[in-house]
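Let's practice the habit of predicting before peeking. Look at the sequence and jot down your guess about where helices and strands might fall. Then scroll down.
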Amino acid sequence: MERTYTIGELARLAGVSVKTLRVYERKGLLFPQRNRQNGYRVYTEEAVRELEKIQLMKYLDFSLEQIEEFLRRYETVGREELLLTQKRLLEQKRAWLDSVISCVERAAVECREGRPDADTFLKALGSIVKNQRADELAGLLGRYSDEPRGWSRFVFSQAGLCPEMNILDAGAGYGNLWRYNLERIPDGVRITCVDKHNTHADGFLEYVKEKEGTGELPEGQFSFLWGDLEQMEICEKFHCIFLNHVASFIQEKECLYEKLRNLLSEDGVLVCTWGGVLLFETIRLLFREFCGNSTIVERQCAKVAAQFKKAEEELFRVFPGAERRSYILELRFDTAEEFMDYIFQACRPAEAAAGQRRDAFLQFLRSKRRIAGSYRITRDTCLYLCRREAGQCLPE
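Done guessing? Here is the structure:
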């Protein structure tokens, strides 16, 4: 006679809770029989084997929905494709965990260097997370386009640097502006980089030391100021100040713009940059085509547009003659999966909007390739040339 198990016995055998087994039943993954005398659940050896499959796939981090689909269509599902897709998702999860670990490590350093109150600590932690997200998106730009080289060379070209200038890089980060324009830096230019310790700017400092050691950079061309840009006192005057993708991290933007304006020499220029709204508008239209309307995506796009408008207004109040120039970038993807992943990374609400229709959204994106011949999406970035005196602009 076949051995059977009560729900408690099976839970102990499998090392899971009774609640978990009930969830599997509700999801249609396990099908217990019923004791005819008392109506209690009874699990057969076949149910034990099904539970083993579920646990194996849970170990591989498959969702319950994916497991249900796999068990239901076991004979027809593309198993290799399923596993390769899961491998890609696990790699993304690993990258996310690495990112979280990095945030925690940097926050721990902040605590070691001082004892901030709760509000200050949470503000600093939020800035770290935001910066980490920006790095992740920058990494995706590098993977699917010619960034960051193209953008860095564009920014450098717009600034119109000349020999003997005194430059402030307000938030130098990786130093890509200089890494990708090393041979284009005019003679005699002095560059002061501002950033916090325990950030990517530490890596840029090491890069500068290495280049100075090999003679590729003149000794002392770069100097570094460590600290909070909004709080530190700077007494020099600069011919050009770069605020490259930093403004979004600043709480009191107008105060910072005033501060930087006062640091400009009489004919100095502030080069300020941030992302535009074209990418979000494209994603909004994609979802309108996919599902008619998505409140969460529409709301996010409206929020981004409002933030963009407010940021411009704040800048123009301090620099009325600021001139906006746009940089258009096209990203190209080999697969619909990569295309979808980028959309979800760039606009987090989009993933929530897709929800359980993720596979349908993937098929929808595949249909776009049949129409357009490739997976592409366009984004814009805005650069503002801000003269100390209103009405003065650099030539095109």
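How did you do? Residues 188 and 388 are 23 Å apart (CA to CA).
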